[in-house]
Amino acid sequence: MKEQNVEQVGEELSFWDHLEVLRWALVRIAGVLMVFLVFTFLSMPYIFDQYILAPTTSDFFVYRWLEGISGGLLNFADDFAMQIININVASQFFTHISTSISLAFVLVVPYIIFEVWKFIRPALFDHEVKHVRFAFMGSTLMFYLGCAVAYLLIFPFTFRFLTEYELSASIQNQIDLSSYIGNFIMMVMVMGLVFEMPILAWLLSCLGLVNKSFLRQYKSYAVVGLLVLSAVITPSGDPFTMMLVAVPLYLLYELSILVVKEEAPETPDND
Description:
single chain, mainly alpha, 9 helices, globular
């Protein structure tokens, strides 16, 4: 069947026509995702050594940068090296596949958002187009910002704190590959998603569903909810990691208060 264009001038699409348009959008997304998957799969050995395993040694540029700007007060670039071991026959193969899929998805996010925009654009009024376009562009930026914060700050400090914590000098830490990559992917992907909070709040305020006074009134409840959320999304569940996640979540909530609209003034009744 011939692909249909979602922007048909002067023509109303039926329910089945919309499904056909959606089907072609999903086909295009799947095709682009497969292309990126091939690329990430072939380049994964290099990416794994240079970037994914980078926080396991003191050569990680964030450790060296923090020690440099602190004038040596923060001893992050010492002889830190954590060995990642494999105790499962198929772990390296399945890790290769899972990390390739995850990275391909991260790279394809802008195209997915573009396809969603193309699909819903004809259903929007002219005054809604600007808000939704900004929301989609902002959501892409915030997703990558969240992934960057997780990779550069939250995951390295969490990993280093937990691996350097010593209960007994006779215990040696050897981190399993599945544990390492599971925590890595979970942290990066989840932080990318939770960084969408200000964009979602702004969009809801444009629809008149939330406002500044509403978010301020329920801030105490939101803080409790954010602490619970940080405990849920923290892979290790330790208090240190939970606070590393909770602080950005709280800052995102404060940013959400700044970006949402003020409560619309009530119009007086003309009696």
